[in-house]
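Anyone up for a design puzzle?
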C-alpha cells in the first residue's frame, strides 16, 4: 500500500471542515468553493480534478454515473453513502477507507463507503 498523501477536492455537498481533518492526517485537500465556481456543473468539477490530479470526495451519485458513461480512467471518486456526512460522525471511517484503498484511488477507482463497508471499482468502467 502506498504511503503517499492523497489529493482530494471536496464537492459542495460536503462540509469545508473536512479539509482540516484530511490535512491533519497528511492529505492535501481543498473544498471546491476555494478553487472553482460554486455554480459549476459536476462535469466541470470532474474535469478540474482530472486536470489537477485530485480525487473527488462527494456524497453525490452523479460523479460515478459520469465516469461510467464516459468510460474515463479518472479522476478517482470517494463517495460516501451515509446519512450523517460530517467529519465528527464518519471522519475515522473515511480516513481508514483512504488508507485501505490508497493504491486504487491513486491509480483510478470509484470507492463507495457506507456505514458498514467500503468497496472499490477500478476505472474505467
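Challenge accepted. My sequence:
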Amino acid at each position: 500500500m502506498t504511503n503517499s498523501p492523497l489529493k482530494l477536492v471536496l464537492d459542495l455537498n460536503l462540509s469545508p471542515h473536512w479539509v482540516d481533518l484530511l490535512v491533519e492526517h497528511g492529505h492535501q485537500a481543498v473544498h471546491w468553493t476555494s478553487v472553482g465556481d460554486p455554480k459549476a456543473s459536476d462535469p466541470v468539477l470532474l474535469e478540474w480534478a482530472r486536470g489537477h490530479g485530485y480525487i473527488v470526495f462527494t456524497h453525490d451519485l452523479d460523479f460515478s454515473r459520469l465516469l461510467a458513461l464516459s468510460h474515463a480512467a479518472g479522476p478517482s471518486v470517494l463517495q460516501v453513502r451515509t446519512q450523517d456526512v460530517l467529519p465528527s460522525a464518519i471522519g475515522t471511517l473515511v480516513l481508514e477507507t483512504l488508507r485501505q484503498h490508497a493504491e486504487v484511488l491513486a491509480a483510478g477507482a470509484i470507492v463507495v463507503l457506507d456505514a458498514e463497508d467500503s468497496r472499490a471499482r477500478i476505472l474505467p468502467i
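A detail worth pointing out: Residues 7-122 form one domain.
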